[in-house]
Amino acid sequence: MTAPLAGIRVLEVGTMLAGPYASMMLADLGAEVTKIEPPAGDISRQVGDAYFASLNRGKRSIRLDLDSTDGQARLGELVTTSHALLVNLKPSAIRRYGLTYDSLRRWNERIVCVALTGYGMDAGDDPAFDYVIQAVAGVAALTGDPAGPPTLPGYSAADNSAGLTAALGLLAQIVSGRGGQVEVSLRDVMLSQLNYHAAAYLNDGRAPQRRPFGAHSYYVPAQLFPASEGYLALFVTHDGFWKSFASEAGIDGFATMSERADRREEVLAAVTSALAADTAVGWESRLRPLGVPAAAVKNLPEALDATPEVIVDAGDFRLVGCPVRVRGYQPRYSAPPLLGEHDDLSPAP
């Protein structure tokens, strides 16, 4: 089957995570992605080979000094035959290198230019790394035990989420058939993903609370629970789930969602006591056949060992493959490019 994005040519001027992750998802789906790197390369090459591979498989690499006349001329040649350019740099650098639609439209009126920044093109150059954005957007304040300090999730939630959003914006503008400028900021993406928390505050004045074991604001019980061994994630969103769970756990009462919400502490005490009778793995094996959403907490090696089907080979690297499954299409994963491996590549006709 022809790749979904076959024939789409994307240029990337990206560094570290958000931009490269966005364009790698496009490459996995068949886009031809050319990574434009400074002479010394994307700084993420210095982090480690596996790190770089996890964000840059299946791309081409061209070195350009965008501060030079020759580099700008070569950029123009590449833009002429490309559908989109995705950039994640500081706003001042994006403008200085001429990586905006207003600067590049003379080469290609239909080029789509995506600027992925920390706070927006007009918000200045304040540093905007993932963990900083999680602090600024309120994510860190919502994470962790209420009695402890704010906590950062153990992975780059802001960068990854912003990368996916940038890829969506890029494709949306290509589908429109028009060139133009698209902007995505890490801060705005994370605020958007706090959707129901934000709505509760904006409409009802209810600020979200940090709850023990990551408990959900509305659904009860929906959180982590200690078992006799390990921890169980239990997510009861409606009365049918509760009926099945309560019957298996030997809990009486609390039949309706509203009652469970009103009597949160009583419900949690009853559930905690019941789950202490078995291991997290034991509860998972008992509740899954009943259709109750529950899973024992795994670490990453355990999760990968349990799902070998998501692991792919890309050259010498073993990586997690594309999460978008298109029936009839199998991505062709290839190794990440060597720095400047495609410097002599002629622009596509």
Blueprint (SSEs and pairs):
Layout (H helix, E strand, L loop, with lengths): L8 E5 L4 H11 L3 E6 L11 H8 L3 E4 L5 H12 L3 E4 L3 H6 L4 H4 L7 E6 L12 H7 L20 H20 L3 E6 H8 L1 H10 L17 E5 L4 E5 L3 H11 L7 H6 L1 H12 L4 H8 L6 E3 L3 H7 L4 E4 L2 E4 L29
Helix pairs in contact: 1-7, 7-8
* Strand portion: 5-15%
Please tell me how large the radius of gyration is. 24 Å
The first-to-last residue Cα distance is: 23 Å
Describe the strand arrangement of the main beta sheet, using strand numbers: 3-2-1-4-5-6
Instruction: Name the overall outline.
Output: elongated
* Multimeric status of the protein: single chain
Number of helices: 14
Q: How much helicity do the residues have?
A: 25-40%
- SSE ordering: EHEHEHEHHEHHEHHEEHHHHEHEE
- How many runs of DSSP E, i.e. beta strands? 11
Q: What is the averaged pLDDT score?
A: 96
Low-confidence stretches: none
> For the report, how would you describe the main beta sheet?
6 strands, parallel
Task: Kindly name the structural category.
Answer: alpha/beta
GO molecular function, one term: transferase activity
Organism: Nocardia halotolerans
Pfam family, one: CoA_transf_3
Keywords: Transferase
